[in-house]
Backbone:
């Protein structure tokens, strides 16, 4: 993507007037997206993009310049633009990229069915199958939206500390959203699996199954009765609940939030912050999982980072800038949306590790409580960890069995306190795919969780107290 | 400039040769810089250079879109083929069409004051100095200015060419620049921030001294602000922030929102939606406007449009698609964020037409009320469908037409349509905000607004 000697010249130009560190990030991305709404193809877009960004860091300041013209003159001009923020002089800087063992692209498992090899007709048919299956679930299904997207992203990172590395990431995702209505009542269902890989995704997930599942969720919830309010034991199903950990705890473990004192976990490394049953990790090395990569967007090799072990806070996740400032090792979490953005600390695949119990055992052990099968949107105060999450598919648990569906339930609590309150963890770890937004940048992440129980959590419901 | 136009036309021709029935080529070449300074040093500098091509192909009402970065002919040809392939698999919709080529031709870009070479020619170092000087000016306004939270300069320069197989072929270039400053005033335990901005077409347009003075003046004026007991009173929106309100209104005037049932103004054409003081104009031909262009992003000639006149709703903002679906005329409001996006409805230079009174006369006339200098959470606190608004505010209590004491922790609540009915006065001081396009408003007065506070 970029010649080694040109990379060296760009970095030398970037540091000509001073600065502590310079880096060039080159990206090429091609993608396709298809959106089916009301059975019509509403969007059908192909995009191809290449670009490069040059970063110069000096003290606490950062300059970033990008271009999508990868000609030599343009790249050197971009380096000069980033250097313009530095007002000093340092003379000649030695940048030597030849010593780095190139790694990345060669080591990634190629997708079994690369997006380029799947005809458009087949992609459209995959979306249509999900759409049809959802509509076949009943008259009360009033709206179905299906979106299919694939992308291939290649990145190259060269930096003044000698890095010269490449990675390649192919991703495919299908989203199905269903609205069901009866009288004035409206309920929604949602399925959205994704993969770091190709169209083999649909060997794991049948589009018709996904469409039907999303529709069933919406239909079941039409029959639901108003949720009760008050403190209850809450069982959170595998997969979906990971979003709660991601939002209410994960963001507080990102080193930039910790530094700004916008985190409940600041200054608590080595302390007990959760029930001793809790082991939590951030792991971008998991094969085929949506939020995985081999190298982060600064060229640091991906690695499994222990966040919490036996309830004790082990480490934060960071990028090069924060690792340097905190005097710690980079964890491989410096990520960016594209060449137009600066890297910042981001989660990859964040999850709570599985325990020994079966989910059935946990349910059987719960006399009266709530079973949250799907969580929807939430809101979190990052400084305090307080959160509210909507339960989009929920049930009562009565006498150790799953009972009637309930609607309008919200979970109200505090991230760290919920971690303390976990009293049972099952062995069925599963992941959900999502896009995580922060500082105006969106990156693919997975959130994972086995079925688990929180001893007591406040449920906000709409049922009359009786 | 000529070169981009020729490229666009040649590629539209190429698309036809490749077998596209109808095609549109959008070429964008843009760049800019933003500089934030803090404590006499550059805190962050960002510079961008970006160009690319967006291709829309229509095949019997079936729409396909594709884009690529760069201007390499081979890549563009591939992108045209992608768009054609995508169209083949789209659902036909008779309202997907290219605009008619206007018989009267286009306004020449030359007279619109869109481009000033100075913006591109000024070296980065000079722009850094400009931001640093703004910070210094703000700090020097008064001994009580303790710090400057942020001072920034930013600009953008863009060149656009558009061509389609219907024979349209046009291009223009333009630029903008802004500066922003937010000083903090302090006295004892009390501290308060103020802000101001200036916009222009070239760096030398920016009135740094005026910007620093207004920002520091507000911070000082608001020192020691307290809440007030809730009451219904006249509310004056300073022209520094009044246009923030218009964003919600412009969204409701989008025909796309109307067609999707997401507008509180749906089905109200010809009705009165506000007081007689309310005239809303969308004018893409306004000289030197931030959204000024001879044609929109699908080639419809720009025009001056009154969407609301003396309180009566006259029309919505349209693209070719929404106009065709609604049986209306395209208004030239198709815009896109970049070559990566298809055109959608968006306002151009959208403003509330100013009156004749000076700001001082307006305040004198109002006498008693609340002058709002800062708004908090306009976007989060306004529901575009119901029109319910609840936003936080900082400002001054007015007594005898003069600022009397500073206010904070107050909330302005109500329905947008009720507010518009109670629009009672407007100043002659129209001012545009570099926020979400190009929205402009003079100082305006709403009568009988519920202001909630703490007693």
Residues:
């Amino acid at each position: 993507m970029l010649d080694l000697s040109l990379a060296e010249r760009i970095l030398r130009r970037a540091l000509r007037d001073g600065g502590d560190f310079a880096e060039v990030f080159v990206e090429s991305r091609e993608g396709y997206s298809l959106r089916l709404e009301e059975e019509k193809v509403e969007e059908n877009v192909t995009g191809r993009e290449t670009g490069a960004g040059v970063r110069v860091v000096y003290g606490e300041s950062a300059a970033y310049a990008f271009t999508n013209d990868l000609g030599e003159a343009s790249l050197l001009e971009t380096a000069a633009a980033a250097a313009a923020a530095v007002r000093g002089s340092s003379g000649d800087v030695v940048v030597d990229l030849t010593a780095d063992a190139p790694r990345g692209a060669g080591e990634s498992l190629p997708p079994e069915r690369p997006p380029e090899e799947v005809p458009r007709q087949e992609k459209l048919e995959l979306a249509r199958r999900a759409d049809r299956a959802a509509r076949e679930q009943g008259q009360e299904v009033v709206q179905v939206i299906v979106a299919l997207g694939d992308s291939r992203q290649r990145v190259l990172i060269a930096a003044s500390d000698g890095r010269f590395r490449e990675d390649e990431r192919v991703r495919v995702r299908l989203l199905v959203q269903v609205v069901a209505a009866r009288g004035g009542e409206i309920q929604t269902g949602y399925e959205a699996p994704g993969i770091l890989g190709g169209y083999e995704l649909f060997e794991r997930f049948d589009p018709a199954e996904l469409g039907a599942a999303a529709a069933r969720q919406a239909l079941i919830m039409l029959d639901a009765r108003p949720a009760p309010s008050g403190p209850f034991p809450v069982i959170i199903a595998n997969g979906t609940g990971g979003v709660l950990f991601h939002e209410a705890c994960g963001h507080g473990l990102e080193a930039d939030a910790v530094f700004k004192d916008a985190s409940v976990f600041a200054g608590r490394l080595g302390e007990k912050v959760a029930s001793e049953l809790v082991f939590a990790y951030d792991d971008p090395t998991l094969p085929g999982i949506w939020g995985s990569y081999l190298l982060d967007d600064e060229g640091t090799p991906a690695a499994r980072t222990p966040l919490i072990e036996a309830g004790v806070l082990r480490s934060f996740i960071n990028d090069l800038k924060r690792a340097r400032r905190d005097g710690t090792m980079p964890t491989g979490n410096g990520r960016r949306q594209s060449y137009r953005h600066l890297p910042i600390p981001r989660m990859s695949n964040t999850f709570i590790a599985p325990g020994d119990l079966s989910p059935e055992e946990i349910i059987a052990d719960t006399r009266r409580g709530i079973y949250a099968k799907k969580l929807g949107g939430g809101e979190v105060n990052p400084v305090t960890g307080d959160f509210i999450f909507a339960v989009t598919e929920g049930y009562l648990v009565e006498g150790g069995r799953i009972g009637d569906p309930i609607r309008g339930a919200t979970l109200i609590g505090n991230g760290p306190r919920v971690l303390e309150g976990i009293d049972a963890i099952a062995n069925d770890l599963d992941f959900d795919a999502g896009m995580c937004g922060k500082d105006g940048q969106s990156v693919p992440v997975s959130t994972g969780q086995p079925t688990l129980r929180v001893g007591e959590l406040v449920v906000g419901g709409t049922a009359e107290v009786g | 400039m000529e070169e981009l136009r020729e490229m666009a036309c040649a590629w539209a021709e190429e698309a036809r040769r490749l077998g596209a029935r109808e095609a549109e080529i959008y070429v964008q070449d843009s760049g800019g810089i933003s500089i934030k300074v803090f404590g006499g040093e550059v805190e962050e500098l960002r510079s961008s250079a970006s160009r690319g091509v967006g291709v829309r192909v229509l095949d019997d009402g079936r729409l396909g879109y594709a884009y690529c970065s760069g201007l390499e002919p081979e890549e563009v040809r591939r992108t045209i083929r992608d768009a054609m392939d995508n169209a083949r698999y789209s659902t036909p919709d008779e309202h997907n069409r290219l605009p008619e080529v206007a018989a009267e031709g286009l306004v020449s870009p030359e007279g619109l004051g869109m481009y000033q070479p100075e913006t591109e020619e000024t070296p980065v170092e000079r722009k850094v100095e400009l931001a640093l000087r703004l910070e210094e000016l703000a700090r020097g306004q008064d001994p009580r200015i303790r710090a400057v939270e942020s001072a920034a300069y930013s600009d953008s320069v863009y060149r656009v060419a558009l061509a389609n197989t219907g024979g349209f072929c046009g291009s223009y270039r333009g630029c903008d620049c802004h500066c922003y400053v937010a000083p903090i005033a302090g006295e004892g335990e009390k501290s308060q921030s103020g802000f101001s901005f200036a916009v222009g077409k070239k760096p030398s347009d920016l009135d740094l001294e005026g910007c620093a003075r207004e920002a520091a003046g507000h911070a000082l004026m608001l020192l020691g602000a307290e809440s007030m007991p809730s009451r219904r009173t006249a509310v004056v929106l300073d022209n520094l922030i009044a246009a923030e309100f218009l964003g919600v209104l412009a969204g409701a005037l989008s025909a796309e929102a109307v067609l999707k049932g997401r507008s509180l103004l749906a089905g109200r054409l010809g009705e009165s939606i506000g007081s007689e003081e309310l005239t809303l104009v969308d004018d893409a031909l306004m000289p030197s406007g931030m959204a000024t262009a001879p044609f929109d992003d699908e080639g419809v000639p720009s025009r001056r449009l009154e969407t609301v006149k003396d309180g009566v709703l006259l029309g919505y903002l349209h693209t070719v698609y929404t106009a065709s679906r609604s049986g209306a005329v395209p208004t030239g409001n198709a815009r896109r964020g970049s070559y990566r996006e298809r055109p959608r409805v968006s306002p151009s230079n959208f403003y509330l037409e100013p009156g004749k009174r000076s700001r001082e006369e307006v305040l004198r006339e109002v006498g008693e009320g609340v002058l709002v200098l800062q708004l908090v959470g306009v976007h989060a606190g306004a529901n575009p469908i119901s029109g319910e608004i609840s936003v936080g505010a900082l400002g001054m209590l007015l007594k005898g037409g003069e600022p009397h004491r500073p206010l904070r922790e107050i909330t302005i609540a109500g329905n947008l349509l009720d507010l518009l009915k109670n629009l009672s006065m407007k100043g002659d001081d129209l001012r545009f905000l570099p926020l979400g396009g190009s929205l402009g408003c003079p100082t305006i007065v709403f009568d009988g607004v519920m202001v909630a506070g703490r007693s």
